[in-house]
Structure formats: structure tokens, C-alpha cells
Amino acid sequence: QVQLVESGGGLVQAGGSLRLSCAASARTFSSYTMGWFRQAPGKEREFVATIRWTVRHTNYADSVKGRFTISRDNGKNTVYLQMNSLKPEDTAAYYCAAKFRDNNEYDSWGQGTQVTVSS
Fold this sequence. Notes:
Distance between the termini: 38 Å
């Protein structure tokens, strides 16, 4: 498994921006597909975005398309989530996850970082 540490969360006003980072311990980070998920109080965890290990193909939840951008820097073993035009409904704990290449399940998770968007 991979150890993941998120950072960059905080309190921001609606319409603002934040950039989350996730540092990974994997020696072969470039072989891992990385994802961001979020969980709001009283709700189930939901998918936000993913970036594949190869070709860097990305995919987004409809609720964040056009506002969020996932990217990775394999030289720094880090994946990012740039969040723009934030809305109060984006308030949640955001989790970074990793899976080896195209495995079905994400099997490594970070501890989460809180994002709070005020109206």
C-alpha cells in the first residue's frame, strides 16, 4: 500500500479557490492511478476526480466539471486538486486515494483534509 498525506484544505468564501495536495510514499508513483473523493457530514463518500497512471487521462464528477482540475507531478510524487468557483455544497472532507494501474478498487487512502465554503 501507499501512504498518502493531504494538505491545503481550509475555509474559503463562495467563489474562491483552493488547491489541495496529496503527497505519496510510493516508489513507483507513476504506476498508480490517483483519485480525489469527498464526504460531507451525514452523506456517503463520493467520487470527485481521477487521473490515470498512464496517458494521464482524467475524469470528473459532473458536479465539479469545469471548476476542478486534477493533475500530478510524478517527479514530486504528488497529485493536486485545483478547486475554483467553490460553492457551499463543496464543503466536505476531501480524501486522496491510490490504486495500482487500473485495479478495480482504490486500496490506499489519506487521512483527509477539510474544505469549508462559506456563503
